[in-house]
Amino acid sequence: YVLKDGPSALDNVISSVVRLMSNREVRVLVVDDMRSTRELLARHLKKQLFRITKATSAEMALKELSLRPDIELAVVDYEMPGMNGVEFVRNVRRNSAYDGIRIIGVSSAERSDLMMEYLKAGANDYVRRPFDDEEFRLRVAQNVATLFHVRQLRDKAARDYLTGLYNRRHFFEVGPRLVAAGHDPEESVPMSMAVMDIDNFKLLNDTYGHEIGDEVLKEVSNRLMDACGEKHLLARLGGEEFGVLVRGLDPMGARAFCEELRRCISRESILTDDGPLNVTVSIGLAEVAEMEAFDNYLNAADQLLYMAKDAGRNRVVA
Ligand code: GH3
Ligand code: MG
Ligand code: MG
Ligand code: MG
């Protein structure tokens, strides 16, 4: 958005941020030992439609951060009994789990040198006291806009442009973590690795052209997305090949699920600009049993996929 001069500048910024964020609310942590200031800040933030968590000390604020991973912005006072605002910022920045959080430091009126201290400690911004309502809201809006843009870029980097599915990079970033978490003895989750490949796709491209091939890829992706939902990690690994980390199903269940995936492609022909086309996929499915490198599961599934192709395609081999 563009910042314009004139009385509407603030409203423009705020409304554009609210518009950008409308699909996900942001939680802001307000840290101040003085009740009046805390409430004042909270009121301003509520006007900007944020969710608020309040803390009366830096120590309490750190606890809130560890309990509430949805906190994305913190506004912190300087002078508080116990840990002060700058020390709080330093503490937060030491913990890489809070990487994404933005912090606005609030200075005390007498100490103009605090600006520098805040920034050195890792704050993103600061406001001087006694603060100006408009300045405060603008700084908050700017910081939230940055949060949003970072989130948007992250999402773009994780997805494949043609199909909108997660890409290989995301699959390899998140997959190993899910596998490790699934091996946690406390709450072990059965998992399987499926690799899927469209059958005779080269022939389809050669016959109907690359654009029709793209249409088919998109429709196959949509069907897989619908079938996998949020539960299973689905990605386009490259070309016409997809990976699915199947979660929460035993080997039998995973196999049945892969049959479902296979059928959701073959059951109905895909409507393209060149008419309906019958498309099938082959799937290799390997159990994620021992604690092995993520690559090994993929290789195992890949070999089974090879067998599915060899055995005539349009089938699942586990
Ligand atoms: P098989 O059943 O053994 O998998 O045969 P296949 O023809 O599907 O396998 P092959 O690996 O020989 O061909 C894959 C084809 O996928 C070749 C390539 O042109 C095509 N392809 C890869 N990425 C894209 C894409 O983004 N769009 C389109 N239209 N085609 C793609
Ligand atoms: Mg104070
Ligand atoms: Mg293929
Ligand atoms: Mg292939």
UniProtKB/TrEMBL annotation:
Ranges for domain GGDEF: 189-318
Catalyzed chemical reaction(s): 2 GTP = 3',3'-c-di-GMP + 2 diphosphate
One GO CC term, this protein: plasma membrane
Protein's GO biological process: cell adhesion involved in single-species biofilm formation; negative regulation of bacterial-type flagellum-dependent cell motility; phosphorelay signal transduction system
An example Gene Ontology molecular-function term: diguanylate cyclase activity
Positions bearing 4-aspartylphosphate: D77
Domain Response regulatory: 27-144
Catalytic activity, EC: 2.7.7.65
Keywords: Phosphoprotein
Protein name: diguanylate cyclase
Species, as recorded: Pseudohoeflea suaedae
Upper classification of the organism: Bacteria, Pseudomonadati, Pseudomonadota, Alphaproteobacteria, Hyphomicrobiales
Span covered, complete protein: 123 to 440 of 451
